[in-house]
Amino acid sequence: DAKTTQPPSMDCAEGRAANLPCNHSTISGNEYVYWYRQIHSQGPQYIIHGLKNNETNEMASLIITEDRKSSTLILPHATLRDTAVYYCIVKGGTASKLTFGTGTRLQVTL
Amino acid sequence: DGGITQSPKYLFRKEGQNVTLSCEQNLNHDAMYWYRQDPGQGLRLIYYSQIVNDFQKGDIAEGYSVSREKKESFPLTVTSAQKNPTAFYLCASSKLAGVGNEQFFGPGTRLTVL
């Protein structure tokens, strides 16, 4: 599975959009980009995933660049409850595991 | 409500004792997983199972054992052979192992070995 690079931390004002970047320059053609988040002392929560096209659901939007070497998770109107560690994961082929890095710690402030 | 349950939430054991962590899901998922998380770190895969009565080692299986006798249940035993068992343990499940099927996680069990 391709490795990912994320900034260790980010801040966002409540009500503003939070844009979390992820680099995955070694991604291969059959690998998906997944995003999870983990609020302190809880299990990770699935947010969204995509292969090539941009995706949107009730929680977030995922923008994948045309060359697929990077992506951005967008929380359109961040709230204090969105404060968490966000993990960008690339998974594909027959691999079953999710390889978690250290993620981005998003702090949403008033 | 459908979901994954893990019990107990907190567990304390003396060094040298085996301990079994429970994981149950009612999502009708085929695959189940066990991960370990240490402070400030990401999750690491211990074991996973794609079907009843079958399971595979993950990245850090030494000192752990699992069973999958029922589709709904995937208990993890932390044995006395595990050198550093104090950690946060997370169970997950998914429809099918492989591409494009997201994993859903339980609330976790925090194990402390004294």
Structure characterization notes:
The complex is a heterodimer of chains A (110) and B (114). Chain A has 110 residues and is mostly beta strands. Chain A is 0% helix and 47% strand. Chain A has strands spanning 9-13, 18-23, 31-38, 45-50, 55-56, 61-64, 70-75, 84-92, 104-109. In chain A, a hairpin with a 6-residue loop joins strand 3 (31-38) and strand 4 (45-50). Chain A is globular. Chain B has 114 residues and is mostly beta strands. Helices cover 0% and strands 49% of the residues of chain B. Chain B has strands at residues 4-7, 10-13, 19-25, 31-37, 43-51, 54-57, 64-66, 76-78, 87-94, 104-105, 109-113. In chain B, strands 2, 4, 5, 6, 9, 10 and 11 form a 7-stranded mixed beta sheet that branches. In chain B, strand 4 (31-37) and strand 5 form a beta hairpin. Classes of the chains: A mainly beta (110), B mainly beta (114). Chain A binds chain B through residues 30-32, 34, 41-46, 49, 51, 87, 91-103, and chain B through 4, 31, 33, 35, 40-45, 48, 50, 56, 58-59, 88, 90, 92, 97-100, 102-108, 110.
C-alpha geometry of chain A = globular
Q: Count every beta strand of chain B, where a strand is a DSSP E run of 2 or more residues.
A: 11
| Number of extended strands of chain A | 9
Strand adjacency order, main sheet of chain A: 1-9-8-3-4
The rough form of chain B would be described as globular
| Global Rg of chain B | 13 Å
The helix/strand series of chain A, from N terminus to C terminus, equals: EEEEEEEEE
Number of helices of chain B: 0
- The gyration radius over C-alpha positions of chain A equals 13 Å
Fraction of helical residues of chain A = under 10%
Oligomeric state of this protein = heterodimer
- SS-based class of chain B: mainly beta
For the biggest sheet of chain A, the summary is:
5 strands, mixed
Strand content of chain B: over 45%
Helix-and-strand structural type of chain A = mainly beta
Helix content of chain B: under 10%
Query: Secondary-structure element sequence of chain B?
Result: EEEEEEEEEEE
Distance between the termini of chain A: 38 Å
